[in-house]
Structure formats: C-alpha cells, structure tokens
Amino acid sequence: MSSVLSSPSPWPQLPRDYLGGVDAAYPDEDPTNDLLLGMAELDRGRAYLAYAEYRSVAALYDRLVAAREDTDGFVVDGFADAAARISKLRGTSRGAAETLLNDAVALRDRLPEVSECLRDGVIGPWHAQKAVSRTDLLAESSAAPAVDADIRGDPAHQARSVEQSQVPRHADFDKLYPSDRIVFRHDPDAVRERRQQALDDRRMWTHPREDGT
C-alpha cells in the first residue's frame, strides 16, 4: 500500500467555497465576520469528513470482521486485524482504533439518522460520539430505530439549523438531544438492567499492611 504522503496534498487547492470563502493562505485580508462564518463552514466540513471516515471504517469492518466471521469464525482475530491496520496507519493506540470501529458500525447500523445529521453538518463529530456512547445498551434492542429518530429531532428544526450554520455547541447537546431520557422512554428495561449491572459490578478491595492497617 503506497503512502498518500508520497504525493502532494490536494487540500491546499480546495475551492474557497468549502472554507466559507476565506483564503486559508491569506486570512488577514478577510473581514472579521467572514472569518467567523468561515469557521462555521469549517465545522460543517469537519462533520462531513468525520462522516466519510466512519463510512470507510464501517466498510473495513464488513470486509475484515463480518466477512471473516462467515468464513472462519475468528471474529476477535478479524476485529484485532482491522484495529491493528487502522492503528498502524494513523499512528494511534489500538484502543482508539477499536473505538473508531465500534462507533462507525454503530452510526451506520444503529443510528443512521444521526449519521445523516453528521453528514449534513447539523451536529459535530463529538455529538455523534456522545450519541453512540449513550445508546450502547440498545445494540440488540428493537427500540433503536425509534431512539435514533428521536435523537435526530424535528427535521424542520434541523433544516433551519443547517441553513443558518448554527451547529449546536457542546453544552447544548444534552438539551437538544437528551439521549439518556430518550433511551429510557423507549426502552426503560434496558436502562434498569444497565443500572443494576453497574451496581452489581461495584467492588472494593482491601490490602492488609505489615503494621496491621
């Protein structure tokens, strides 16, 4: 596999429309308001790049994990292989690569409407990650599609947000997309089971010292 670094990056030639009309080489020549609007457009671009990454990673999962499960049954080996490839390519930890794989599959299969919001720049990558983590207990639940639709919210509101480039801030996510309450409304048993499991898993260890404490 040849490295993408062996050829010049095409990104400096990206049309200015994708940067909110700001020339990244000479931003000091643009008005302050244009710079701020450009940053909002960059947020949408960042969201789309995350969406594209998740889609590619999910395809890798299908080839290296799901397909391998059908042929030799070594699911763990396939997942480890996929994580190792991503980790080596990115220069990141194996744990980070595994999280990326899990998030990519969850967004595609469990939260496709949330994934569309990410694609359109309505939410940012951090919002998508939070939605995945808050709905992990629905991985095998029939309530997942309803929760996905509720987290996505009202389509008309989302369209207005995109039109006005008003991507929700970190602090606004729980107000606009209250994932915990939505999950509880659709599958309260799953929430109760997760809570009970957390209580059951609580432990305390003691180690006696030589002085008797």
Automatic annotation (TrEMBL):
InterPro entries xrefs: DUF222 (IPR003870)
Region described as Disordered: 187-213
Taxonomic superkingdom: Bacteria
Organism of this sequence: Gordonia aquimaris
Protein name in UniProt: DUF222 domain-containing protein
Domain DUF222: 53-212
